[in-house]
Amino acid sequence: MNVFLLGLLRGLSKRGMSTDVLTRATGETVEVTVPFPGVRVFHVPCGWQKPPTRESAFASLDLFGDRCRILLRGERIEPSVVSAHYWMSGVAARKLTGAPMILCYHTVEARKVPAPGAGQEPLSSIRRAQEAALAGEALRIVSFSEYDLAENRLIFPELADKGVVIPPGVDDRFRHLPPREVARAFLGLSQTELIFLLAAREDAGKNAAGAVAAFRAMRDRWKGQATLLVAGQEGPEGGPGKDVVFLGPLPHAGMPMLFSAADAVVCPSPYESFGLVPLEALSGGVPVVVPEGTYWGGRIRSEGGGLVYPRDEPARFSAALLALASSPELRARLSMEGTAVAASFTWEKCTASWEALLASVSTPGSPR
Fold it and tell me: Is 171 helix (H, G, I), strand (E, B) or coil?
């Protein structure tokens, strides 16, 4: 979500749109940053614990809302439209102003596929209720694909009239990756072994455990050297073994180098509202492996760029990895297909669509 918002704000700035961002922060005083011309980010203290949790974030909403109302009055900010991203942002936004609200869920709790053995999250029932309420309150609700909108409409019938589809963009640096040998030398990786990459934050729903199991099952059948890199997670206690390397959290700016070093990118999450990682990989011509029942599962099955496997069949997941490992020709063909699939996703198109949407619902006479 942060990667998406950064691209959107940069694009709106280029289009001359003034935007104020209210975000939660620790500390005692409001800090203001200006990442792009015309974009002000107000970091509002609200008693948020550090390191944050979903529970502490939810508990901070009332204080955040109170302080944001004071801030808006003090700065004489009268927004013409409020764009809320994520359900907690929608909960906060409904209390701030009478301006029309555009909501982007990013993910929907009722569509999440629980990880094996994982219990229900403490906030799950609260989140479901709030997402349902926001479906009725928001003037427009943005989805990233027609597939995502159709799936969300099954849960929120209101989206039949309110739903809007605006695909995200992808930064040009992912379309122009450094040479693979340069990336591998920079990262200290072998120039000859096969490298798979999984990029996902620490979350059982991302199914990193399933990817590790499928990779090791592939290794048992393939005699070459291979490594699975896991970016964004620390890894289990005791170490995962030398063939799986957990890199921990990494800045987004470092991802093009990792994509360049990889022969394929594994995206095993059974539910993503869209999935920027597959898009970034495809943009750079890196084949992806994704499960069925997702946006990218359908798109790749019809247009290419990767391999698709049934999400409840681990053996088929492993077989897809083996097929990629065994055939440089297959990887080369999928690479060419992937860049064609990703070509239409640009920030210029995305931000032009957002500008038109914001203008269509904004309160006349308000400057921001």
Answer: coil
Chain-centroid distance, C-alpha 287 = 18
Task: Classify domain 2-169+347-361 at the CATH topology level.
Answer: Rossmann fold (3.40.50)
Residues 347 and 168: their CA atoms lie apart, in Å, by 7
In this prediction the pTM is: 0.92
Q: Which of 113, 320, 287 is nearest to 214 (CA)?
A: 320
pLDDT, tens digit, 9 for 90 and up, residues 129-156: 999 999 999 999 999 999 999 999 999 9
Burial of 133 (0-12, 13-18, 19+ CB in 10 A): middle
Length of the chain equals: 368
The ranges of the chain annotated as CATH 3.40.50.2000 are 2-169+347-361, 172-342
pLDDT in tens, 37-51: 999 999 999 987 777
Confirm if 200 and 269 have CB atoms less than 8 A apart. yes
* Total Cβ atoms within 10 A of residue 364: 5
